[in-house]
Amino acid sequence: MTVILAAGDFDFTEEAPAKINLALHVTGRRADGYHLLDMLVTFARHGDRLGFRVSEYDELSLSGSFSPLLAEADAGGNLVLKARDLLRQAAHAAGFEAPPVHIHLEKNLPIASGIGGGSADAAATLRGLTQLWALTVPSDTVMTIALKLGADVPMCLVSRPLIARGIGETIELLPDFPSFAMVLGNPLVGVSTPEVFRLLARKDNPPLALPSQAPNDHAQWIGAIKRLRNDLEPPARMLCNEIATLSQLIESQGALTTRMSGSGATCFGLFDHLEQATAAAASLHSIRPDWYFQATETIKGET
Fold it and tell me: From which domain of life does this come (predicted)?
């Protein structure tokens, strides 16, 4: 009999929340080719989930709606495995044991969809293995590992509302940032991030600027977010016609504002209440049952 595993069957579990770019401004480019970004980022309560337990040998198992697609990908390129190996090296260098581990990844987020799925998984791996191996490695060491894994991983390691600048390594937490009801949508069509950046009309756009006096209620925050933008959305729409259709569909459900996240193709709509978002996601699923829709709430800042 085949045993179906879930992350909850393991000794430690870690959530890997979807990373939502409420705004993404491309402000320049470094000499090494990396683009400079200003990002307003929040995290959804919906995401992947990982389980961890000590094992006789290293193992990675998969479940979840999008696990078949992940299983088809190159296992050697999996950020979960890279995070495990880099953290193990740091543990050994600090004199800690880091025995073989069975990691289970419950893959609930679409692959390569602009909401940080792989980065969130890597960050959750760093958090989970730090617990499992009882490590007291300095937080700066873990953050350095996170940046080696990718520019989004330090943000996902925090998984709280923030502003990120540079290539993503300069992080400012937003402790008073509210939670939003949200619908995520994805047409399940891949978009090439390098190609999106290549098609940017300009790479020195105005930086992200929030009001000098922080908004103090939901409506003011929505207004502030509306005045921001995602500079990657126009070129992504050129590559993927479905993004425009998806955005229009979400907007038609009464979203307060709609935007693409990251380099796409996921779009989000913000709503007043979770009940509205849930009804909107159900309606959208009935219109396009072949696309991905998910109602969720975002994680509020911690004061």
Answer: Bacteria
